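hiii, so i know i said id send this last week but things got crazy w the move. better late than never?? heres the sequnce for the chain we talked about at the cafe, plus the structure i predicted for it. fair warning i was half asleep when i ran it
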Amino acid sequence: MTGMDVEIELYSGRRNPVFGLGPEAGERLMNRIAALPPAPPGAAPLQGLGYRGLRITGAPAADVTEIVVSGGVIVVRDRNGTERVLQDAGRAVEHSLADLAAAGLDPAEMSVLRRELGAGG
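okay and structure toks below
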């Protein structure tokens, strides 16, 4: 299994920070996501300018093309265009990904990320 790339959708009109998840962390993430319940009807990722969540590519599951972790929901998209919307209660997965980002993220960017997560969750 190879690593996964996590883009922190922090900016509008500027390059977003990206960090990698190694195989073990990626597998743990996929196991956590697999155990999540469906989100309530109408639940959707954050939209608009500024912080919108985390976009993950390179998932080890062959049919998964992208995972979006945002605002208490996780959207898993597959190669057929199908989306599964799952509930991330307390934004637990989102917070754990932010913790993993802390080691490689610029302190100012980390401050913005923590502020955004604190404001919305």
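btw Strands lie at 4-9, 18-21, 53-57, 64-70, 73-78, 83-87. thought thatd interest u
miss u guys!!
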